[in-house]
């Protein structure tokens, strides 16, 4: 699932094309975006499910769930998907939704993790891959990598450096998940 420029999606497509043990069955977006164009360029089915096209958020949640479950995914990856998934989606796919966040959670959750880390003045940030739950970036953490912040960093330069790490880490975690699964013990999640 995506909302933006699709570089994380491209990394997953590349890994799959290189023989990784997973296939991208569809891409769902909440807005017209480059990620949807990338999916179409690779003949991957895409669905557009915009909040504004539904009477309320609950209706969008139900519609998105129906559109995604039609593809019967074993895992759902939110790769720059900028909407909070609702209770219907979570009940349908809970435990099988993986998100990549551009900060070292629990620090700087939400839609602006890169800007928030930069504004706070931390010297190190990074990326987190985690399971998605009903909270905002509160699900069990699967993997993290640090990224140093440079004195002259802007949000864009820092975010691009984080993305370069994310693109590899997310693909590595997805590969491990589809082959080994995950063991969850409370807040702890481990890939055996
Ligand atoms: N139930 C959950 N859904 C999602 C999670 C999650 O942890 N739990 N992670 C997000 C991805 N994400 C951070 O990694 C994130 C994306 C967007 C937002 C947010 O506040 N979105 C607003 C709208 C913002 C916009 O449209 O530009 C909203 O949903 O109203 C917070 C965190 C994926 N889904
Ligand atoms: N909180 C969610 C969030 O900020 N997600 C971030 O959006 C970017 C998508 O990049 P892309 O569109 O180039 O794949 C990624 O950095 C991802 O961590």
TrEMBL record:
Reactions catalysed according to its record: N(1)-(5-phospho-beta-D-ribosyl)glycinamide + (6R)-10-formyltetrahydrofolate = N(2)-formyl-N(1)-(5-phospho-beta-D-ribosyl)glycinamide + (6S)-5,6,7,8-tetrahydrofolate + H(+)
SUPFAM superfamilies, sorted: Formyltransferase
Pfam families xrefs: Formyl_trans_N
Pathway entry: Purine metabolism; IMP biosynthesis via de novo pathway; N(2)-formyl-N(1)-(5-phospho-D-ribosyl)glycinamide from N(1)-(5-phospho-D-ribosyl)glycinamide (10-formyl THF route): step 1/1
Record EC number: 2.1.2.2
Sequence ranges assigned to domain Formyl transferase N-terminal in this UniProt record: 2-174
InterPro entries (UniProt xref): Formyl_transf_N, Formyl_transf_N_sf, GART, GART_AS
UniProt keywords, alphabetically: Purine biosynthesis, Transferase
Record flagged with keyword Transferase: yes
PROSITE patterns registered for this protein in UniProt: GART (PS00373)
Any one GO MF annotation of this record: phosphoribosylglycinamide formyltransferase activity
Domain of life assignment: Bacteria
First-level EC class: transferase
NCBIfam families membership: PurN (TIGR00639)
Family to which this protein belongs: Belongs to the GART family.
PANTHER family assigned: PHOSPHORIBOSYLGLYCINAMIDE FORMYLTRANSFERASE
Protein name: Phosphoribosylglycinamide formyltransferase
Organism, as annotated: Gordonia sesuvii
